[in-house]
C-alpha cells in the first residue's frame, strides 16, 4: 500500500524552511535576550490591560528547567478563543484526540491512550471518572489558564504515571494579575442555537498578600449528525459487498447541550523567608445528551415503519449528566539555615451522576406470522465518586557550586465508589398504526413504570488506593549545562470490593512497589542553540474496570470478561533527545526524538473456560503478558518574521510523526488509537496602527486504528480550520470574532465486528459498518473589558 502525506509533508517543509532562514540579519540575531523572555515562569505582575489588549503575538516559551518542557502562555491560545483546556491543547505538539467532532476531551500525548498521560493542575494530580484514570480536559475552562506545560520526560519530584509525558495546566495566581476584566459573548452553532459565554477575573492586594478570583459561565452545545451503513461482509472478503450484503442504514441526531459553571481563587503571601498559598477551583457541568436513531432496510429511503415502509427501528436515548469536580490545596514553604522546606496538602473530588433512558420500537418482525412490533425500555443510573487526599513534603539543601540536593515524600489516599444500576422492560407494541410517523411520534411516549433498579454485574464496587512514595534528586548548573538526576520509590496498597451480588461479596487486596530513576540534561551550545536529553522509568496503573474482581457477561463480543485485581502496572523506559534554536528575540524552534520501551503490557487472555453464552464463547481475563515500543519525531516552530522585516507577523506550527509496535493474539499492530501523524500550522498578523489583528490555524491528524477481541475500528478526521479577527479599542477593550470547524471536518469510522475470537481470526464478520459524523461550523463573538 502506498501512503501519501502531501499536506503535512508540505507543512513540515515550510517550517523547516523558516528555521533554515532564521539566521538572517546579524543585528537581529545577536540582540541581547532579556531575562524575562528567557524564563517567564516567575515574571512581574501582569496588568489586566495586558491580558485584554494583547500588545504582541504570543509564542512558545523556552524553558530553563533541566527537564524537556514546552511552555505556552495563555497569549499563545487566547486569540483563537478556546473554550476549554482541551481546545487549547489542539495547538501544541503531539497531542491528538479521538473525541466527537468539535469536542476535545481525552488528551492523547504522543497519540497514546489518555491513561498513559499524567494530567496535573497547578502541578498536582486531579481525579477523573474514567476507568483509565484519565481526566477529561474539557472540564477546565480555558479562561482559567495562565499557561500550559508539556513535560516530555519525567522527574523524581513527580509521580511516575507519565509513560507518554505530563500535561500541566497552570492556573492564574494572585502574583500574576493586577486589576480585573470581564468577558462576555456568545457562540452560534450550525443548528441556529446560541450559547452564552461570560467571565469575570480580578487580582489585587488584600491584606498582607494578593488575591485572585475568577468566575465563568460557558454554554456548551454540539449538534452532531451521524450516518451508518451496515453490511454482512466487507470489501476485504467480498468486493461486491455494497450490492450483495447490505443489512441496514442508521440515521442519528446526537445533540450535546449544557452549561459549565466554574470558579477559581488563589490567595498568596510571599514573605522574606516564609511563603504561603491556598488555592482551589470548582467546575460544575449540567449537560444532556439526546440521541434519536432510525434504522432503515434501504440505503436511501426514509419511508415509515414496516411492513409497508422501510423503517425497522426507532430509538430514543437521553442521558442527563450532572458532574462536579473541585480541588483545594495549601502550600507552606520556609527557608532556614538548613535549607528550604515545603509542605503541601490537597484534597480533590469528582462526582459524576448520570441518568440515562433508552426506549426503542422494533418493527423488524415477521408480520406474516402474526408478530407485532416490540417496545423495549432501559433505565440506567450511574453514581461515581472519586476522592483524593494528598500530602507532599520536600526539603532542598544547597551543596555549593550551584548544586542542590532535594528529598521528600508523598502520600495519597484515593477512594473510588461506583454504583451502576439499571432496570428494563419489554412489551408488545400496543397496536400497529400505519399512521405512525417517526418524525412526529417518539418511543418515549410509550414508557411505562420501570421495575426496581438492580446493580449491573460489576457495577457496585469500592476501590481504595493508598500510596506512600519517597524521592531524592540532585540538580545543578555549570556554565551552559543544567542537569538533574534522581530516583523515586513508589509503593501502592489496593483494597478492592465488589458488592454487585449481596450473596457473594468479593474483597481482594494487592500491594506493589516500583523504583523509578530519572535523569535530564540541558546544554547551551551557544546563546541560541541547546540540546536536551532525558531518560526515565515510568509506569501506568491498571484500569479500574480491569481490577474489579467481577465477571461481566458478553463484555468481549459474545464472551465474558473476568477482572484481575492482581494486575501490576505497565512499566516503561523512555528516552528523549532534542535540539532547540532561538530565533530573534522571541522565536524558538525545536526538534525532538522520543522512544518508549514498554513491558508488562496488559492484554486480554483466553482462560479456556466456557462463557455464559455457551459453546464458542469463553471467559477472558486481563494479564500482564505483552511488550511494546513507541517512538516518533516532533518538530515545532514559533517566531515572528522580524528577521525578514515583518516583526508584527507571527508564525507557529508543529508536526509530529508517531509510531509504535505491539504484539497481540492477531500479530503486530500499533498501540490502539494512535494516529500516525498530527500537525498544526498558523499565523497571526498584528496591525498596531489600526488596533487590528487577524490570523488562522489549520490542524489535521492522521488515521488511528483500534483492535480488540471482537472489534476493529479505523478512525479518520477531516482537517480543522479556524480564523479570528480582532479589534482593539483604546487600552481597555477588545472584541474578537472567531470561526472554527470551518471545513466542516467529518469523523469517519470503519468497524469490523465479530462474534468471537475464532471468527475474528478466520475473518468471518458478524457486521461491517461505515459511520460518519459531522457538526458544522461554530462562530463566536467575544468582548473583553479591563478595569
Automatic annotation (TrEMBL):
Signal sequence region: 1-28
Pfam families in the record: Plug, TonB_dep_Rec_b-barrel
Domain spans labelled TonB-dependent receptor-like beta-barrel: 258-706
Compositional bias per record (Basic and acidic residues), positions renumbered to this chain: 249-260
Subcellular location: Cell outer membrane
Region (Disordered): 221-264
InterPro entries on file: Beta-barrel_TonB (IPR000531), Beta-barrel_TonB_sf (IPR036942), Plug_dom (IPR012910), Plug_dom_sf (IPR037066)
Family: Belongs to the TonB-dependent receptor family.
Protein name per the record: Outer membrane receptor protein involved in Fe transport
Species, as recorded: Sphingopyxis italica
Lineage: Bacteria, Pseudomonadati, Pseudomonadota, Alphaproteobacteria, Sphingomonadales
